[in-house]
Amino acid sequence: MNAQIRKLMENPRRGLLVLSWPMIVSMVFGTLLNFVDFFFVGGLGPNALAAVQLSFPIFFLIIAIGSGIGIGTTALMAKRLGEKNKLWAEEAGMHSLLLSFVVSLFFTAIVLFIDPVAHSLGGSPEVAHLAADYMSVIFAGSAIFFLGFSMQAILQAQGDTKLIMKLSIAFTLLNIVLNPIFIYDLGMGIKGSALASVIAEGIALLAYAWHIIVRKRTYLQIKPREFIFTPQIMKNILKVGLPAAVAEIGLSIAVLGINFILSGFGDAAITAYGIGFRIDSLAILPILGLGAGAITMIGYFRGAKDYAGARRVYHTALKLVLAFTAVMGAAIFLLSWVVPHLFTKDTSVIEMAAGYLRIIAFSYPFIGITIILSSAFQGMGRGLPSLVITMARAILIALPVAYYLAYHTSLGVTGAWVGIVASGAFSATVAFVWIEAYFRKLCRG
Description:
single chain; about 0% strand; mainly alpha; about 85% helix
């Protein structure tokens, strides 16, 4: 165990914040990409905006699986570092890169079937055609995105989150520069937005590889020539990573399901949800950053078999999250009518998006609890509880309740928003009861 990790563990609260704040900043800039796409594509008209929103659940599959591999990698590498086993931590990093590359081949092949995929998403034929253009570029460059997740996990596990932050900022700024060039100056339209993202991410990936593999300036050394395939290492990554990926896919299915529910109210409802969803994505970023820091910190304590220390980490994270979500929820509620004007001038879209934000603001504390507690389970090497909690929130409760309230009550579109809030409250309660019982048993043992 190096001095930096030992120092982080000496003060769990400080360690959590040290690891989390760069991740929060990097996630803020990463999520700004959604706003960049929506902002620049918005100049192409409402159909282009709807196409990006329809594409998101499919593009989210890359994010979900890549994130799952990254979570599994971080949890395993952090555990090995907590055990003071540097060699096996490095082996886990190399196996993660191999797994990411192999999985990316499948997604690249989806390009061959992109038209029927796009037309099955529920939008009008014009919107589906634009969605196919957008997704074909994203999936062609999927290997770049997957390898980037593994590189970030390797850095996160050893506490080097500041480099992740710096490259995320550079990647986002480059994307902002490239988007209008490809969309408008080169006349590529919606394809140009996707190409800008792939190119910017590719440059960031090269920077990661240069720092980790070529220059070898990090604590953990990734040495491809010394790689020895070990099935047990791959299994250990997937033990946490696969449930995490399925949970993320569950979120994608939930977005897709909400899109289908809203399709009965027209493309304007889908666009409104797209705007609101992007506001949500930005609002919960500090929670996701704390969750990422919690996975790493809890992994260290797990490796050292200090379960009381692991418990202190997630208790601290919960207190921070509840304070933050109270403030953020109030701000979103008060600004609910103002924010949608940044994306569109369509009054019907603005009205529905504002209604979404006013209601969804009440779900932020519940979302914060589920994210932190899911991360705590993942840091402990328990992927299944996180999967169950997320699936309950995203699919088992949200979709049926949203559908019923939207079509079988007078609430209409508003019913879909209420269903999302109800699912968050349920899953947060289940998650808290579950993890407290789990840690009481560990600490007694």
